[in-house]
Amino acid sequence: MVFVLEQQEGKELRELEPKEHILNIKQLDIYYGNDHAVKDISLDIEKNAITALIGPSGCGKSTFLRAINRMNDRIPGARCEGSILYDGVSLLDKEIDISALRKEIGMVFQKPNPFPKSIKDNITHALKFHGITKNKKRLKERVKESLQQAALWDEVSDRLDASALSLSGGQQQRLCLARTLALRPKVILLDEPTSALDPISTGKIESLLMKLKKEYTIVVVTHNMQQAARIADHIAFFYQGELVEQGKTEQMFNHPTEKRTASYISGQFS
Amino acid sequence: MRIQTVNRIATSIIILCAGIMVTIMLTILGYVLFKGIRFVDWHFITTVASTFNVGGGIKDQLWNSFYLLVITMVFTIPLGVAGGVYLAEYAPDNRITAFIRSCVEILASLPSIVVGLFGMLVFVNTFHWGYSILSGAIALTIFNLPVIVRVTEDALRAVPQEIKEASMGLGVGQWYTMKKVLLPAAFPGILTGIILSAGRVFGESAALLFTAGLTSPDLDFTHWSPFSENSPLNIFRSAETLSVHIWAVNSVGIIKDKVAVASGSAALLVIIILLFNLAARGLGALIQKRMTGK
Amino acid sequence: MTLNKEGMTPLPIEQSSTRERLIKKSPSVKGFFKRESELRGKWLIYCGALIIIIATVSLTLFLVWQGLRVFLFDGVNPIHFLFRSDWNPGDAKHPTYGAFPIIFGSFAVTALAAIVATPISIGTALFMTEIAKKWGDKALRPVIEILVGIPSVVYGLIGLTLIVPFIANHSDSIGYGLLPGMIVVGMMILPTITSIAADALHSIPNELKNASYALGATRWQTIAKVILPAALPSLLTAVVLGMARAFGEALAVQMVIGNVTTIPHSLLEPASTLTTIITLHMGNTTTGSPFNHALWALGLVLLTMSYIFILIIRYLSRRRTLS
Predict the structure, then answer these.
(1) What does pLDDT average to over chain A?
(2) Minimal C-alpha gap between C138 and chain B (Å)
(3) Which residues pair with A29 in a beta bridge?
(4) Residue C278 above 70 pLDDT?
(5) Which domain holds residue B9?
(6) Which contiguous run of DSSP H or E holds residue C285?
């Protein structure tokens, strides 16, 4: 039903600017041992847009997000079935080079987690590993560029060698974003990136994401409904491991088709 | 009323126990330092030991102790850190890992003289290295390895999991993450453990009796070629350390001033080990402070 | 729920480029020698783990084999060796190998040291965790650390120059014997038992203690009826670890025990232990001689006991995790 609705609404739009989906997830099931954490989820992620995954905690949205760049691989007993196509390539294949995958699909975590190193080293760490450049000058340019993209450059340009742990929580989270951006990924996955931050820092990150979507595809998990409404183009509502409903933001907020969506969005449960 | 009396008596006994503990520590330190310190002077430290006469020093023994410590650490640190990294990060949850854990436990609880016997059997006799610094250093490595393994594993496990995820999330490999993020983050803890274990190695004697030996050749401190017979750097020569010296002058020695030599050596040994302890605490805290930038 | 499965516009896919970037490249030999090679790092780590195994296994096998020689090649009866008291392997004509007094000595020193050290250690641990909760731990940890750090020869020297003369002056014995051995080894295992006991007492949940205090129990009643029983397996582990250390202690004991291979009848009589006889004679006997082999057999007894201590500790820790 929902699908029909969306197609009707989006008809004119699609003619104006043809939409492209960078990620196609089909019938994805994730198990932790006997726990069926994510149930038969199919979802397409639009390129250069922000998709927000919402739902009460424990609903499988973080697990789903982590599956996209295979962060669940190292969890003992975790199992993934179904398919995730990224630009037509199946990401769950054994053949996939996880390192190369994560370079293209970056991730920012809930708690700011900078390395206990200097601000500069936080950004060059992965650049050096991937062998992107060894040239000092080019590394420096990359550092500057990514810090500028993350709107952090003006605050830290004079102390790049200071410990990243001396930054405030909000700054740390933008640094984490910057080091992901430094790899020039195609997709950025954010797992509740502002839940540990104050409102001002949250605002900064949100406006940053709005800007970044021109160049990147962004998937963000959030439990904050207002945040989803402010920044997302698309919303997917997860509940107890299932994808209940998904669609454009306005439509999800104004005319949710599912009762559960409506009651979650209106704050009847969380 | 009676219950209260019992309680009071029991409490007093417990306090007495703690008092005894502190008294023992103070007595030992006080006795060793005050009895020995008057024999420790520049002459004592810079004179070679005497076999018969009064007035010998401990120059060679002191050198041997430090040299053996360095060689031991050269072996132990890479092996122990590798073992700790394995157990903290690479070990799959299977029988081999459980077996390695048992091995670490066994090595940790073996008496040091047993390790010394093994060193004698294999390195001194079978490999024909004789009583030598190399045999001693390998025995001490086996003795010290489990300590470094545990220290490394504990320090790595204390590093927040989020930091590892952050690095892996950027596509950085396990080894590079270990080398550039996790090990540096665990460094203060590992360093503290290494210095503390260095104190233990420095004072060890039973493992060395039958591996590094009870004698040293006359060391020629102008001759540094590691292959020369009496070069201080030669690792195939026998080497009596300071702690072995303390035992030897009392048990098998014939010098008249053995009380002076033993007391002086003991005071010096205890001072050096206390310095190791202080350095371990101080350095660990300092690096931690620097790293967090606070 | 399966919204987008069918009916969506098919995507224009540039297979080649993305696929090329994301598919694993086959590992090259050259790559292994690169500085940042993941594979090389893994090998390095596995080598470390392997060496731990090699060291433990070879140590055990070599010492067991060497320790059995006296029984296999020199015709010594193991029963005689373990239970007879005629230790005289140096005798040129009629060497005898009854090592019972030596084995007895090791057990005697271990048990006596544990008897001396356990009450003081557990008392101190109780002081740190129950009496002076705020500062006890902070004040006594350094004390424990210093005691741990003092080398065993220094303990031996103190025994030799302080305790032995003291006993000689205050009794009609020569001073050397089980008593100074017990005191010296007891002091040495104090910090071992105390620190593990303190950790064990720390891990007793506060709710348990508060429940007892809430019922009006005194501090001692709480300690005796609640805390000590709850911590018992861990406290036993602490004592066994201390005993393992006491059993293997060599030079400090050797300096004060007197090294006589007869069974002592009182604390003031000299005795000997496995470690002291090995220390005294291992360097002076000819490799391959029956006397030398007998010493290795003593080493084997020592090794076996170490393994038994480890098994006891394992048993205790399993019981701890079960309860």
Answers:
(1) 87
(2) 13
(3) A81
(4) yes
(5) 1-39
(6) none
